Amino acid sequence: MNTIYKCLRQQERQLGNYSIVPLRYEDRFLIMKWRNEQIYHLRQARPLTEEDQQRYFDNIVSKLYDNPQPDQILFSYLEKDICIGYGGLVHINWIDRNAEISFIMDTSLEAEHFAEHWSNYLTMLKAVAFDDLRLHKIYTYAFDLRPFLYTALEANGFVREATLKEHCYFEGKYKNVILHSFINHQYDIVNYVDCSLDQQKEILDLRNLDCVRVWMVNPDVISEASHLQFVENLKEDKNRLYYAVYRNGVLVGTYNLTKEKDSVWERGIIANPAIQGTGETEKWERQILSRISCLGIDRVTAKVKQDNIRSIRYHEKVGYKELAKDKEYVYYQYNLNGK
After folding, report:
1. How far is CA 268 from CA 28, 72, 247, 314, 332, in A?
2. Are 228 and 217 in contact (CB under 8 A)?
3. Are 268 and 255 in contact (CB under 8 A)?
């Protein structure tokens, strides 16, 4: 069975020892076991049989991967390649750009590690929803049976949006349904390869400004043809990531990462001069830094020209630590794990 989602550019997300990967066929009966153990909080009418689960994977799951706009995207949640949960985005509304969150973990982990695994999972799922799929809103629909779920959601920035009174029937009683949501009011991070031609020209114009080029390693003006060919080459390059950053449709900067070794990537950044001094650049870089650990990145390096005092102060404010300096540059590193 093909397990590569056509709708996703980044198939896997990683956070330390944990990751989410496209739903694995080999995990199907583990998932069935957990669903049957936790049927009380799921929209599942009866315990599943192996035949039910096999039929579901053969007839439903197998058709999700090649669909450019599937109604659900499911993942196996792993700890060091061992499946300890599963879930994804379901009831995806591609017109209104929203989706419901689904997640269950190994039943044996719930008592002591419930909040930890929900937090790990939500961090990675946000990156899928907002950075890759560019959804506007994700939400949960939960029977009012597990109040500790709401604590975990709210600790991860979700807001209790509504209570549907006596909306479900459970064990002879009507129960409420609680809706929590997370709306992406943050900066829009767009991969260069997904940008329109007009956006590409806008990016190039920003990069070629005299006040920007003067601080670059390569200060030469780049032609439109060279830029477009560069972007075309990025489509097959797994060692370079380039992003345009927008706020309410306005280009506020660009951000690039080039792999140095293992989980260490060198960062380049351009801030739109129109927003310098407003604190905007720090906000959108922090948003990016909070997400890229899901790409398996642990450390980000940067170098700044010795006479670029504004940039040196900026890096120190954000939390980059000076590693070394020479006659021309100061070299910095930012540890995503905080150590």
Report:
1. 42, 35, 19, 13, 12
2. no
3. yes
| Residue located via tokens 């509304």 | 93
Spatial neighbors of 152 by CB under 8 A, at least 6 apart, are: 114, 115, 118, 119
| Residue 18: strand pairing partners | 15, 79
Strand partners, 99: 138
Q: Which residues contact 246 (CB under 8 A, 6 or more apart)?
A: 187, 188, 190, 252
Tens of pLDDT along 238-257? 999 999 999 888 999 999 99
Give pLDDT tens digits for 87-111.
999 999 999 999 999 999 999 998 8
The alpha carbon dihedral of 131, 137, 142, 148 has a sign of positive
Residue ranges and CATH numbers for the domains of the chain are: 13-183 (3.40.630.30), 188-335 (3.40.630.30)
Go through the chain and tell me how many residues it has. Answer: 339
Tokens matching residue 199: 């956006």
Q: What is the pLDDT of residues 115-173, one digit of tens each?
A: 899 989 998 898 899 878 989 999 999 887 777 788 888 888 889 999 999 887 877 88
